[in-house]
Write a structure and sequence with these properties.
globular; mainly beta; 9-stranded mixed β-sheet; two-stranded parallel sheet
Length: 141
């Protein structure tokens, strides 16, 4: 969620949390979540170290983490790889865009900052990809 302990985004986030304290906020801890447990407690964030299962859904940091239920695999949401899709034009121009990536039993969420970079994905047949533009979401074919 945060990559460092000293930046203005943390102050803005804490103000936002104080303004609307009635919303539950859960964090599946990942490799960049370096802040102290006290920070998350004071910010009203519930921490889950590896996963959070809610009904037919499971939330993890890394898609390779297990979300198996007793009898079936739960639909899994993750974010660790920061998926990106490369768009290429006829004149050899190209651009890499962050994207949502949906498989049959999982979804990989994009990073919402320029800091993290992106991993180029190669969608499988039947998967759905939605590229993020500045003011819209573009379904990919």
């Amino acid at each position: 969620m945060f990559h460092s302990s000293a930046n203005k985004e943390i102050d803005l986030f804490l103000k936002w949390r104080n303004d609307i304290p009635n919303i539950d906020f859960c964090l599946i801890k990942g490799n960049h979540d370096i802040l102290s447990k006290n920070f998350y407690k004071d910010a009203g964030i519930k921490i889950f170290e590896s996963k959070l299962a809610i009904k037919n859904f499971c939330f993890v940091h890394d898609i390779n983490s297990s979300c198996d239920n007793e009898n079936e695999k739960l639909f899994t949401f993750s974010g660790h790889i920061h998926p990106g899709i490369k768009l290429e034009g006829a004149g050899k121009q190209s651009i890499m865009l962050p994207c949502f990536y949906f498989g049959k039993k999982y979804a990989v969420l994009p990073a919402f900052s320029a800091f993290t970079g992106m991993a180029k994905i190669k969608p499988l047949k039947g998967d759905k990809v939605f590229a993020l533009l500045k003011n819209e979401i573009l379904p990919m074919q």
